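S.,

Sequence below, as promised.
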Amino acid sequence: MKKILFLLLAVSFFSSCNKKRITELQREIELKDEQIELLEENVRNLQQTNSSVLDRLADLSVVNKDGAESIKKSLENINQQYGFIQDLTEKIQSKDSLNLALVMNLKRSLADVNDEDVQVEVRGGVVYVSISDKMLFSSGSSRVTSRAREVLGKVASVINDQMEINVMVEGHTDNVPINTSCNKDNWDLSVRRATSVVRILEKEYFVAPERLTAAGRSEFLPIADNGESSGKSLNRRTEIILTPKLDQFFKLLEAPPLAD
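The prediction came back faster than expected:
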């Protein structure tokens, strides 16, 4: 009987201990569940944040791609413009060198001619050979003197050595009116004188006619005061203007096409 009572007491004690342990384990499980739930919530938040960051990175990638393409085109345009400017600078320097060579050759050829009668200079990037009226023509006439023909021959020799230039001959007068059987006014006289010089350059010294232009400026481009006799003398002149061929010059100024 005592043994039975002891066994019942032992079972009751262990049952009470197990129940307490089970309660503790259940509490621990509940705490673990709560921690798991918190961790899962953190995971969801992190996933949302990551997704947002990825979307922003994708947008930024597109922006950077477009920006990079725009920058690339801009750099291409800048390089093209720089190349054009560099080429233009080289051509201008080359033209300046040509002008210098022309002036030197002309002055060397005309070394025995009085500087008062013939002047060679560069104005506005163009070479001018200015020949006085008293050397070229008799008063009121468009007939070229024999002395002037020699001068024109020396000028033509230099012109024929430089095939990349064109030649314009301009006649100029003073402001004294003229009206003769040959010349109606100073326009007539200036044009006739320019034409006479052009004919000699072509016919006697074989300058290609397609390189030649004759023009008359009458009294309207003076270089001195027509109120004095010395000024009138300076204004009565014929200028031979040596210029780059216009088609080459305009082509030189064409900018390269820009990238779209």
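Residues 9 and 15 are 10 Å apart (CA to CA).

Coffee later?
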